[in-house]
Design goal:
- This protein is α+β, with helices and mostly antiparallel strands.
- The protein contains four helices and four strands, in the order αααββββα.
- The chain has a four-stranded antiparallel beta sheet.
- A hairpin with a 3-residue loop joins β1 and β2.
- The longest helix has about 55 residues.
- The mean pLDDT is about 85.
Amino acid sequence: MLSKLRTSIATRLAFILVLAGVVSALSTGYLFYSYTYSKEFAQSQKNIRQLAYAVSQTAAIAAYLDDLTLAKEVVEGIAGSDLVKGVELKSTQESLATRGTMPTLAETMNFDLESPFSSGEIVGKLSLAPNIALIKSDAKKAAINHVILISAQTFVLTSLIIFLLNTQLITEIKRLAKRLHN
């Protein structure tokens, strides 16, 4: 009985289809994981740049005037974002406001602040430290969700193909073979 199951065309076809489905799901899953992870990571970096751009005029005014109160409001507003773990606003002479932990210069996103009154004159710098751990975690979650969806779709599609081949093709071949032997 077991040898008949191993040699039956339906079993061999089902095995080949399952193997093809698994290979397809693994390769597509890997590609989608990599793509989604990098896309989500880049989107978070873009969101941080947009956040910096949204407050850049107010930050430039605070830096130009060396206004500690306005600088603190700008920094507090940016620090409210989960994507940022540290913010620092500096004028050309001093640090006006800081919130959170500021890592090394290589790990921060720095934005020069242009004078609101004379174009081309740099009056300060806005430094943002991205919350890399959160960004990576969110990117990983999104990527894993895509892989799970692709795997589920592959499983359903492979099962459907096996069922249809068994009911349409294999049954028809067996019926034809039975008629030929009679």
